[in-house]
Amino acid sequence: VTTSSRNLLLTPGPTPVPPAVAAAAAAPIPHHRSAEFRETFERVLASLRRVYRTDNDVVLYAASGTAAFESAYANLLSPGDRVLVATAGNFGDRWVKMAEAFGAEVEVLRFGWGTRPDPAAIAERVVGRADLAVAVVVHSETSTGSLLDLESVARLSSDRSAVLVVDAISSLGAAPLETDAWGLDVVVTGSQKALMCPPGLAFASVSARALERSRSARTPRFSLDWARAIDAQRKGQSPFTPPISLIAQLDVALAMIEADGLQARFARTRAMGAGLRAATRALGLELYSPDDPACSLVTAIAWPAAIDGEAIRRRLRSEHGITAAGGQGEAKGRIIRFGAFGAIEAQDLVAGIAALEIELVQAGHVVELGTGVGAFLRAYVEAESR
Amino acid sequence: VTTSSRNLLLTPGPTPVPPAVAAAAAAPIPHHRSAEFRETFERVLASLRRVYRTDNDVVLYAASGTAAFESAYANLLSPGDRVLVATAGNFGDRWVKMAEAFGAEVEVLRFGWGTRPDPAAIAERVVGRADLAVAVVVHSETSTGSLLDLESVARLSSDRSAVLVVDAISSLGAAPLETDAWGLDVVVTGSQKALMCPPGLAFASVSARALERSRSARTPRFSLDWARAIDAQRKGQSPFTPPISLIAQLDVALAMIEADGLQARFARTRAMGAGLRAATRALGLELYSPDDPACSLVTAIAWPAAIDGEAIRRRLRSEHGITAAGGQGEAKGRIIRFGAFGAIEAQDLVAGIAALEIELVQAGHVVELGTGVGAFLRAYVEAESR
């Protein structure tokens, strides 16, 4: 095998940046108070609302997804407020730690890593709870590949006083999410996932109820303050100097996403996920992510006990130019994760599976070369044609 | 005059992005946990420390300069702590508002807009004050063009218990600033000023004293937390997904800055400032920024009463492709501001002054064309040759 000079990201974020989006970053930057930038900014905000499926304000931050998520705690909480976090992995755990850092009384509802949380169990902890200020759920738990049935959570907990905050950092634009139809109060996402941009932008949609609650929340905040950002954005402005070049890239990426259509993108992700699960089985490997068509955004594969998986993952990078993600937290060293959204397409995953097969065989795993790729293609084409 | 299709930024931020820095944004992005990115990240952090003239940690944020500044309050304050803010313009006023948002007891030391703050007056309010938690000064007040004699402030207030926080957002890399030699505790800057990058990255250096104080500060914070970021950065990592493409750009820009040399850049800014002040006088206009060689980063020119300055500024943009800044706050509509740092060079300012002359004459201001440009060139060359 000759060493590849490629650099193919098959990670569930950052995802590959399409050439047209990359090129947009190199254009001369306009001043952020110019009419030219204002036009771009307003177009981006309008497009974001369509992708979010909302008429709510979507606040744009120069920030990591983590900081945009933090805006929910910073704007909604006063010291001692009660927060429920439903967690089934590393990112849910991060929101628990963050809630503790904000001085909240935190209730943690844990689900097993690699399992899908039970919507009824979440709703049960939310409905009829006047004492609960905020309920946090993770839509796509990127660390395990588990996708929450968010629609059911929202429906079953519609009779709540808590503000529902959704970590959709790696799901928005990759899986169905209806901010308004499902009554989601705060939905957070980032630029470097399904939105096909480099990291550095992140977003939070804010419902009327969330905005109302923020007016009495006493946590100090300034740059994350929703009211300040929304006031500026409604005038086509950003409250502070915005990341002009990243916004120019997002403008191009959102146009591509809208031209493609959200439904087409969701279907592609589901077909790629079906292919990855079929390849896993055909290669005699075990899924770590749930074996469920809904959980197609991230496919996590468990390494067999006899295989040094981290060595294979390093060789995918060094010999094949392919970056896949490893495990985090309790799954560290035990799994490999492939993303199937953003600009990642079937041919990229074919390259990834082919490289994985080569390395598995060299590591002594008994399988006929082509088995995984063949299974991927059959399942993918079948799912696509449905 | 034919209309220009140029887009020349002569604003004191964002400043123009050099082509090599622009091109770096379009390269494929590596994963942020890859060895390749780690190498870039560590190189950038080391270079930042050299430009900052410090051995302290310099925390890198995916953020506006405002949010990086906010990290000082978030990490240093507990509710009710006393903060002194010395302000002589719009940005100083922002740090007053922000301190209030953080529940601090705020003391405001005001200096006139367009004047240079008196270092002794600041030191007098800081020295021997055991009750003062934080003292805030603005190095370059971008809204007026006033540069603080920061060295004197630091020297005169060296016997202080307060943590000294410096807004160097538009000055670091454009004017002398010795973080360690002057004993500056926290120095904040942004990517889109002297560092020649698009906006979206911002930085805060943290002295041992500041870090120590942050351990007992009770303001809730997570993404802005210094200790978390420093722990990660010392391992060559970022605590959250970093803005990979912007960091790749910063890597190129910092190499350019270091190849040029800080002293050469400071000298160029001083020469360009001398040129702009000479042009102002030659054109029969009045300076709004201080008439002082130290105040060369931003030159603010007051519009004559008979001239509709905002109309001229619009025409600079529409007819000449040149963006200059207007006034903010109490100077709104009254001044025009030119930046003279970052990638802005003398030939850019020559273009700016030439366009300004054309528009002044068309608006009825009596001056012979070429007067301003000639004065600029003579003062610039004289200052350069010193």
Note down, in words, how this protein is organized.
The structure is a homodimer of 386-residue chains. Chain A has helices at residues 19-24, 35-52, 65-76, 90-101, 119-126, 150-156, 208-214, 226-233, 244-260, 262-282, 309-320, 346-362, 371-384, and strands at residues 8-9, 57-62, 82-87, 105-110, 132-138, 140-141, 146-147, 163-167, 186-190, 201-206, 286-287, 298-302, 322-323, 335-339. Chain A is α/β, with parallel strands linked by helices. Chain A has a seven-stranded mixed sheet, sandwiched between helices. A three-stranded antiparallel sheet of chain A has the order 11-12-14. In chain A, a hairpin with a 4-residue loop joins strand 6 (140-141) and strand 7. The longest helix of chain A is centred in the C-terminal third of the chain and has 21 residues, at 262-282. The first copy, chain A, is globular and about 65 Å long. The model of chain A has no long low-confidence stretch (mean pLDDT 97). The interface between A and B is large, with 55 and 55 residues.
